[in-house]
Design brief:
about 280 residues; alpha/beta; Nitrilase/N-carbamoyl-D-aminoacid amidohydrolase; 5 helices; 16 strands; about 20% helix; globular
Length: about 280
Amino acid sequence: MTIKVAVVQMDPKLGQNDVNLARILALFRDATGQGARLVVFPECAVSGYGFATLEAGYAAAETIPGPTTAALTPLCREANAYAIVGLLERCGDENVYNSAVLIGPQGVVGVYRKAHLPLLGVDRFTTPGDSGFRVWDTAIGRVGMLICYDLRFPEAARALALEGADIIALPTNWPDGSQNAPQLVTRTRALENRVFLLACNRCGEESGFWFFGHSQITDPGGNVLAEAGAGEEICYADIEPSLARQKRIILRPDAFELDTIGDRRPDLYGALTRN
């Protein structure tokens, strides 16, 4: 089954949730109007990212389910499509998570909370994610999520691959200085795990940082199928999720075959689980 996917590179406005959500809904309609079955938005697309205090981030956070999921669910149902949106998730009286939510025709499908937190933006104050690395079986394939800095840790993407992910969605806020992520890391993670990687960056300036765009859709061979420029843009690609399940690459039968999942040596990797 071939499906069209989209990454929506946009410029969220800090703390203007209503404005950002209205823009997300309009762009989702645009993308699904072009036939996209999965539409990925940036990290903190609903709220913006560059908050100076926990209190400011908490004020822009929302629950899941909440306003964003309530607004997107009927659009997903109407288009028979899925959305992945980055937002700040409020949980209890103090905890704020940097989260991504997967929404489908039936409503909330899954939530991922960012596990690896850099000293940057609102992540200086958010609670480290506790959701683990899960994969959700959907009508368009097996979908996992990471957020931004998580990509720098190969164990995270590998965990999703071992859970059976066909597609890894990466809502991100790559600021100037992180250009090696789309140049090198996205392609490497896709190739080493044999998955489709949908990296959706924001663009524009916020809180003294410039976000350079270059959202990207990469196939299981590490090939870039689509890449945005520096401004607002929607990138599309046609993908076949089942190709991500073909982990063994046969270049010459019985002479040159590679399987970066099946050829692993977990018995030698004990250091990976030691602090």
